[in-house]
Design a protein that fits this description.
CATH superfamily of chain B: MetI-like
CATH class of the largest domain in chain A: Alpha Beta
CATH architecture of the largest domain in chain A: 3-Layer(aba) Sandwich
Structural class of chain B: mainly alpha
Order of helices and strands of chain B: HHHHHHHHHHHH
Oligomer: heterodimer
Largest interface: A-B, 27 and 21 residues
Number of domains of chain B: 1
Largest sheet of chain A: 6 strands, mixed
Number of strands of chain B: 0
CATH topology of chain B: MetI-like fold
CATH superfamily of the largest domain in chain A: P-loop containing nucleotide triphosphate hydrolases
Low-confidence stretches of chain A: none
Largest sheet of chain B: none
Strand order of the largest sheet of chain A: 6-7-8-3-9-10
Number of helices of chain A: 8
Distance between the termini of chain B: 58 Å
Order of helices and strands of chain A: EEEHEEEHHHEHEHEEHHEEEEEEEEEE
Radius of gyration of chain A: 24 Å
Strand content of chain A: 25-35%
Bound molecules: adenosine-5'-triphosphate, magnesium ion
Number of strands of chain A: 20
Shape of chain B: globular
CATH class of chain B: Mainly Alpha
Structural class of chain A: alpha+beta
Helix content of chain A: 10-25%
CATH architecture of chain B: Orthogonal Bundle
């Protein structure tokens, strides 16, 4: 059983702290995705788990061992690097079998493991090539294959798909998910792509500036973001945030428009807040989901349209702020056309304007 | 009046042609030609006495020539391998140093800043059997009470010469290998650590293959250097005593300038150059195959 536990893990580069005492419990077999903007400390965290980066404080446990002082080779982990990090002077076969060769496994066993991994990742025809003769996607698969041949306790992925084109990325995403279902090994996966995070993760860990901001299942972080940062980071298009003030049970937007206070939220009278609504919850009348009990109606001029086929993304202006809305069963819309939009208030969010913290109870 | 008009490109290239002709082509042709004559420096008219391949046949049948040839190859092999190992060790240590590395790198190059002639004199003094540093040190430490004839005994003299060569030129390897160490991508090294490699295995299977091109470049440079070795040996032993440390070029130099048999010397020189070419070709082949195996173009 290989759960991974981070206890108050700190990383300093000299005097500069880049990871601040983070705590994380990862269960055996869980697929956890670390996500966050560039420079937030995802890679550093992963590399501390791998043993490639010294741990400045706290403890990292893999299985039942504290691994702080163990070199990477004693941690029984596999890692897939962002730039693949293949051995350029070895063939694909040698790359795949290298860890087993180092572990002095019998030749026959190595051959079997390599063939099996090559089979899973459709690398069999490429086994005798060198990495220099492979495409990006093929190199990526070799990197994955190298990780899976040795049945580690934990897989670590550091943005493995970021160098691939969109189509290949989608394809590999499915492959990774399938791989996890097949082998059931604990996976810690770093990305800054929230779609990857949402689609792959059992649980998402959202990081920012070396802190963990929220941990939760994809739906939890999508539906109940703890603050405005998570709200805008998770979900595409990003959640619309409108500055507002709480006035006599309603929300007063910058231009004086008043919207009823969404249910389930606590706000002080006069509190400066940010009103958050996703594009899926603000739709023009006649092109929306069936209305719910808590609806607010606003009129907005459309400034730009992005037809996506089954729906159209509308850019409109509300109280001086640009807002993205969705139009189902779309019809052509002229720019400048003023439409009436329904806002599904029970799906809306409220964040404190200063701290960004969610005001949901 | 008729004036010859040369095309402008020819006029522009003319200086280059003239210089090439003067410094390369003429000496080359002349020396090659003279190797087929009985040319003696003291009797210039002998340059016209054509004797065909006689000089070459003589060299090929000359035991002294082949002894010098073999000794040169031996020196090359021993010195290059020692320099490679020491240079590699030095580079690995310097690469680990974090503070004052620049200073260390500069110090490392000191031996290259001295003229080989002076290095020769210095080591001649160090290995001198009477007043030399080494014998004095050995005697003071009580390790021996005889004066070891460093530069007289053939084997010991060879060791002394190798020592001087290695001292001057290990830094060539160290510098080039250090450059290689700085150029190594970190990703594969980290991948190897995760794949279970000990530091030694990481070095053996990942770092070293990356360093091989750099090592072969150093080998190619140094093989040319050692194949034409003359100055240090000439100063330390002059190929003696009794030819015990004779190398190709001390032999050729003596034949040409002391014995004045320039035709014969040139013939031996051409055979010696074949040796250099062979080594260069060998190391460049190795270099290009090491580069190919790293996927660095062909
Ligand atoms: N060797 C280093 N010395 C000093 N600071 C470093 C070093 N390596 C990383 N950092 C800093 O640590 C912080 C976290 O880096 P890290 O690589 O973990 O970011 P990341 O979340 O993986 O970002 P990205 O998505 O761009 O890969 C960054 O601010 C970076 O500048
Ligand atoms: Mg990173």
């Amino acid at each position: 059983m290989a759960q991974v536990v981070l206890q108050d893990v700190v990383k300093n580069y000299g005097a500069l702290p880049v990871v601040h005492a983070i705590n994380l419990d990862i269960a055996h077999g869980e697929f956890v995705v670390l996500v966050g903007p560039s420079g937030c400390g995802k890679s550093t965290t992963l590399r501390m788990i791998a043993g490639l980066e010294e741990i400045s404080g706290g403890r990292v446990r893999i299985g039942d061992r504290v691994v702080n002082d163990l070199p990477p080779r004693d941690r029984n982990i596999s890692m897939v690097f962002q730039n693949y990090a293949l051995y350029p002077h070895m063939t694909v076969r040698e790359n795949l079998g290298f860890s087993l060769y180092i572990a002095k496994r019998p030749k026959a066993e190595i051959e079997r493991a390599v063939d099996q991994a090559a089979e899973i990742l459709s690398l069999t025809p490429l086994l005798d090539r060198k990495p220099g003769q492979l495409s990006g996607g093929q190199r990526q698969r070799v990197a994955m294959g190298r990780a899976i041949v040795r049945h580690p306790d934990v897989f670590l992925f550091d943005e493995p798909l970021s160098n691939l084109d969109a189509k290949l990325r989608t394809q590999m995403r499915v492959e990774i998910k399938r791989l996890h279902q097949k082998v059931g090994t604990t996976i810690i996966y770093v990305t800054h792509d929230q779609i990857e995070a949402m689609t792959l993760a059992d649980r998402i860990v959202i990081m920012r500036d070396g802190h963990i901001v929220q941990i939760g299942t994809p739906l939890e972080v999508f539906e109940r973001p703890v603050n405005a940062f998570v709200a805008t980071f998770i979900g595409s298009p990003p959640m619309n945030l409108l500055p507002a003030t709480v006035r006599s049970g309603g929300l007063r937007l910058a231009d004086g428009t008043v919207i009823p206070l969404p249910p389930g939220l606590t706000a002080r009278e006069g509190q400066a807040v940010q009103f958050g609504v996703r594009a899926d919850n603000i739709m023009p009348e006649g092109h929306s989901m069936p209305p719910t009990a808590h609806m607010a109606l606003v009129e907005m001029p459309v400034t730009l349209t992005e037809p996506l086929g089954t729906e159209t993304l509308l850019f409109a202006t509300l109280a001086g702020t640009e807002v993205q809305a969705k139009m189902l069963n779309p019809r052509p819309v002229r720019t400048g056309e003023v439409l009436r939009f329904g806002i599904a208030l029970d799906k809306c969010h409220l964040f404190d304007a200063d701290t960004g913290a969610s005001l949901r109870v | 009046m008729y004036r010859m008009r040369l095309p402008p490109w020819l006029v522009l290239l003319m200086p280059a042609f003239v210089i090439l002709l003067a410094v390369v082509a003429i000496p080359l042709v002349l020396s090659l030609y003279s190797s087929f004559t009985a040319f003696q420096l003291t009797r210039p008219e002998t340059i016209t006495r054509w004797i065909g391949t006689f000089n070459y046949e003589k060299a090929i049948g000359d035991a002294n020539f082949w002894a010098a040839f073999g000794r040169t190859v031996l020196l090359l092999t021993v010195a290059l391998n020692l320099e490679m190992l020491l240079g590699l060790g030095l580079a690995l240590m310097v690469a680990k140093v974090t503070h004052g590395q620049r200073l260390l790198r500069t110090i490392m190059m000191f031996p290259m800043m001295f003229s080989p002639i002076l290095v020769g004199f210095q080591f001649k003094f160090i290995f001198n059997d009477n007043v030399g540093l080494l014998n004095n040190a050995l005697q003071s430490l009580g390790l021996t009470d005889v004066a070891i004839p460093w530069l007289v005994d053939g084997n010991l003299a060879f060791i002394a010469i190798v020592t001087a060569e290695v001292w001057t030129s290990t830094s060539v390897f160290a510098i080039l290998i250090l450059a290689g160490l700085f150029a190594i991508p970190q990703d594969p090294v980290e991948a190897a650590r995760v794949d279970g490699c000990t530091p030694w295995q990481t070095f053996r299977y990942v770092t070293l293959p990356f360093l091989m091109p750099f090592i072969y470049i150093a080998m190619a440079i140094r093989s040319l250097d050692v194949a034409r070795a003359y100055d240090i040996v000439q100063v330390m032993t002059a190929g003696g005593p009794a030819r015990r440390t004779e190398l190709l070029w001390t032999l050729i130099g003596r034949t040409g300038y002391v014995d004045a048999r320039m035709g014969y010397a040139n013939a031996m020189g051409y055979i010696a150059i074949l040796l250099s070419i062979a080594f260069t070709v060998h190391f460049f082949r190795k270099l290009s195959s090491a580069r190919t195996s790293l996927g660095m173009g062909d």
